[in-house]
């Protein structure tokens, strides 16, 4: 079980792991201090839910280290009311951060069990109306709901899929951990301006791989 005073754990997490690493977006810092991260991890790991590391959530997947969630969100720079596509629901924590920031989130997961578990947490937090879920192949995006102001990929991609770019609105941003060498990924931010793509490279990181298709039950 997480400590009854999880608010203090979340506050310390933000101060020592996120603010101290030069994340400055005040709305993001506030959202992560108010979000009960322990709800997104298995019961036996709730005591370490606010630790400075990624944690397994079953099905061979993880919830990312708090700093990495913060860094990717700051690079994405979502604004209140933005329509955001997330590739890889996982635990649902990243989608919840975006919802707490006032975004309209569309999140795709290839593993049905994870998607259903995340939906229950969204309902418990009262944000189910802000997060639309779908079971599918994230490489294909969500064409019927495009364009999106922001696209965030939460698994290691071997390439930037054309569908993500096509579904990104003019002036939109894409953030993705891209495989740059063996077992090494780097956070890439792409901004779409006047039909051209402007790329920036940021932190090195480690994610589970983005896999094709939908996992069969």
Automatic annotation (TrEMBL):
CDD domains: AdoMet_MTases (cd02440)
Residues that span the membrane, as ranges: none
Described function: Catalyzes the methyl esterification of L-isoaspartyl residues in peptides and proteins that result from spontaneous decomposition of normal L-aspartyl and L-asparaginyl residues. It plays a role in the repair and/or degradation of damaged proteins.
Entry-linked PANTHER family: PROTEIN-L-ISOASPARTATE O-METHYLTRANSFERASE, PROTEIN-L-ISOASPARTATE(D-ASPARTATE) O-METHYLTRANSFERASE
Listed GO MF terms: protein-L-isoaspartate (D-aspartate) O-methyltransferase activity
Any GO BP annotation: methylation
Recorded family membership: Belongs to the methyltransferase superfamily. L-isoaspartyl/D-aspartyl protein methyltransferase family.
Catalytic activity: [protein]-L-isoaspartate + S-adenosyl-L-methionine = [protein]-L-isoaspartate alpha-methyl ester + S-adenosyl-L-homocysteine
GO cellular component terms attached to this protein's record: cytoplasm
Keyword tags: Cytoplasm, Methyltransferase, S-adenosyl-L-methionine, Transferase
Residues of the active site: 64
Subcellular locations according to the entry: Cytoplasm
EC number: 2.1.1.77
Name of the protein: Protein-L-isoaspartate O-methyltransferase
Pfam families for the chain: PCMT
